[in-house]
Amino acid sequence: MSLSFFVALLIICFLAMTIASLSSHDDSVIDQQTHLNKIEKIDSLLPQTQCGDCGFNGCLPYAEALAKNETEINRCLPGGNETIKELAKLLNKEVLSLYKDAKDSNLIAFIDEATCIGCVKCITACPVDAIIGAPKQMHSIINQYCTGCELCIAPCPVDCISMVAAR
Ligand code: SF4
Ligand code: SF4
Ligand code: SF4
């Protein structure tokens, strides 16, 4: 084998390795972008209340865990069944019933209407539109929509919301 042939062979091998390495880098960039797009799509379906009820430190970490298939689609109490259905569709998974961890699955919010001052703060806090009312008028819970997430309780300035057993 002549020296020039050997050098040419070395160059060809080097070029082949460089191309293979660039191609695998491109693939990993595409994979990473696909993964980020998936997280973004999942996150866009979540209520963004950042309540942590799902067991994660906010909606984005939950979306990241879902994208990695590290958790179930039924952990978001504020999102309720509608969010589960949308996540199931997006991730091509079976629809599950809402997971309620430490919370009593039979509890829903109740407003003591005699004490309510109609400040609307609970309506703003409810991620699933389970509260009806108008400014300066009493507010009520639509029982079948309430997911029991308790997000309406803290904002109430007169403490007239409590959790009660669903009837
Ligand atoms: S429970 Fe739902 S709204 Fe609350 S942080 Fe988790 S994903 Fe966000
Ligand atoms: S607990 Fe309150 S905030 Fe949560 S769904 Fe029921 S009414 Fe809405
Ligand atoms: S936050 Fe409390 S006082 Fe204000 S409207 Fe809701 S229930 Fe009534």
Please tell me about this protein's structure:
This protein is mainly alpha-helical. The protein has 2 domains: 89 residues, Electron transport complex subunit B, putative Fe-S cluster (3-methyladenine DNA Glycosylase II, Chain A, domain 3, Orthogonal Bundle); 59 residues, 2-Layer Sandwich (Alpha-Beta Plaits). Helix content is 41%, strand content 8%. Strands 1-4 form a two-stranded antiparallel sheet. Strand 2 and strand 3 form a beta hairpin. Helix 1 packs across helix 2. The longest helix has 43 residues. It is rod-shaped. One iron/sulfur cluster (SF4) binds next to strand 1. One iron/sulfur cluster binds next to strand 1.
Name the hetero compounds present: iron/sulfur cluster
Cα distance spanning the termini: 90 Å
CATH level-four homologous superfamily name of the largest domain: Electron transport complex subunit B, putative Fe-S cluster
By CATH, the architecture of the largest domain is named: Orthogonal Bundle
**What is the count of distinct domains?**
2
Order of helices and strands: HHHEHEEE
The number of distinct helices, counting runs of at least 4 residues, comes to: 4
How many beta strands in the DSSP annotation?
4
* CATH fold-level label of the largest domain: 3-methyladenine DNA Glycosylase II, Chain A, domain 3
- Our Rg estimate from Cα atoms comes to 26 Å
Adjacency order of strands in the biggest sheet: 1-4
Whole-number mean pLDDT: 86
Describe the main β-sheet briefly: 2 strands, antiparallel
The class by helix and strand makeup works out as mainly alpha
User: What general outline do the C-alpha atoms trace?
Assistant: rod-shaped
What is the C-level CATH assignment of the largest domain? Mainly Alpha
Could you estimate the helical fraction of the residues in percent? 40-55%
Strand content: 5-15%
Report low-confidence residues grouped into runs of 5 or more.
Answer: none
